[in-house]
Design a protein that fits this description.
By secondary structure, the chain is mainly alpha-helical. It contains 15 helices and 4 strands. A hairpin with a 5-residue loop joins strand 3 and strand 4. It is elongated and about 110 Å long.
Length: 326
Amino acid sequence: MLRIALALTFVLVSGPFLLTSCGGEQPGPAPAAAPAKDSGGLAPVSLGKGGTAPVAPVAPVAPAKAPAEPPKEADLLGKAERTLSSPDEEERAGVIEVLLSAKDRKAAGRIAEKMLGDENDDIRALAAETIGKLEYTEGTTALRTLLARESSALVRKAALQSLYTLLGKTAVPDLLRAVDKDEDSAVRAMAARMIGDLAAPEAGDPLVAKMADEYDPDVRVALAEALRKIKPAKASGVLIEALEDQHVGVRTEAARALGEMKERKAVGPLVRVLSPDEDSQTLVAMLEALAKITGNEVEYKENDEASQKQAIEEWNVWWEEHQGEY
């Protein structure tokens, strides 16, 4: 027989309670927790039923460092000037960026002026251009000296551009000298256009003389453009001759110039050079010039050969009737 009275005893490891399945003692109050041992200054943290464990205190946060002050401009310019002696061309060229961002334009201009003596053509050109961008008028003497001895057309163009920017009409003698003497056609053409933009009347006669003996077509185009803007009285002769120039651009600019000058002497020559075989843009310039000078309007359509041919015929008829007036 099975025994009726079976005593089961459970021992709980986590607490000092003794439970009896059949009418045993009721659980009593839990004993007080033992005092925590010294943890060496570490704060205890509760682990629930398992007790406590020491935790290291949080270290104090160091204050953030103040941002470093940007270098002073004088220091940057000083470093830039020292860089001019570097054997590395890219480093020397990089000085230009520092100069253009400087607030002290005169200090930057003086450094750019020193760079005009660099052995590298591109760096000399950048330096010459920078003098103009910095509006460093004290550098004009150095630019003129550079022009007198410079072998690179690139550098001469940059120097002329800065003189034009800094001096305006006061630079006309420098520009005329370039038109007349510079061996590079691109430099001569650029100088002629600058003179035209300045519309300097004192340059009219020298440009007329140059138009008569200039061999390069691109320069002759630039000269015709300048004469159109200046409108010197003596220009009509060379411009009328230019209506028969071999270069289409020269013929076009000559016609435009004569039209804007309203040169009556050009009416006959303009009618005579009208041709359906002419370049369309040039033919339009000639037809417009005749209309401006005479006030006679002949209708035509651009890029319409039949319309333009009809206009040419009408102008020839008109000339037969009115040539005595011109």
